Amino acid sequence: MKRVGMMLSTCGLVLALAMPGWAQTRQLPTETKTVEGTVETIDQARRSVNIKTPTGEFVAVDVPEGAKRFSELKVGDKVKVTYNNNVMVRLKAPNEPAVDTLSQGKAVGAGEAARPGGTFANERVMTATIASIDRDHSSMTFVGPNNWKYSRHVVDPAVFDQVKVGDRIDITWSTDVEVTVQ
Fold it and tell me: Beta strands of 25-75 (E only): which ranges?
């Protein structure tokens, strides 16, 4: 779930960068995304599933240990995954230590008679550094733990006057996920 959660949640980062008042933590509106498709591959050891969407894209989903019926999932199953992302962004003080945490909540299954599925939640907090600012294209690139990189369009150009390359930000996102096997 880490990869998909990170990819989807970071989409909300662009909205945060458009908000003034970096000294405070800003919470963004919840963003909901649904991915539907067919299970193409299952890696039982890594607890990872690749879903192929109707448009031919592949989405990787990491399944938490608490998902007890993971072994019942089969290649070819039709699945629907709905993510609700809550994102907060805060400019870090210069000497404040970096953070990189992942907390996973308890997975709740769909029951014995139902197809495999259920819900789970996690919260990721990480410190990222502004690696580049491109005013001409109104974008920023961030680098975080394990060389995680992300570039994003910035809606409000006034943000560029509030930050500089090398500034660090904390990104906190909470994601709850519902998985249904159809």
Answer: 26-27, 31-43, 48-52, 58-62
Residues 6+ apart with CB under 8 A from 174: 85, 86, 121, 122, 123
Its pTM stands at 0.60
Residue 68: closest CA among 104, 114, 117, 113: 117
Residues 6+ apart with CB under 8 A from 26: 16, 19, 88, 89, 90
Q: Residues 107-132: pLDDT tens digits? A: 565 555 466 666 778 888 999 999 99
Residues 83-108 pLDDT 10s: 787 877 788 988 999 999 988 776 56
pLDDT band for position 25 (cuts 50, 70, 90): low
Nearest Cα to Cα of residue 128 among 150, 143, 148, 146: 143
Rounded Cα distance, 99 and 124, in Å: 10
CA nearest neighbour of 81 among 55, 119, 121: 119
Rounded CA-CA distance 48/40 in Å is 11
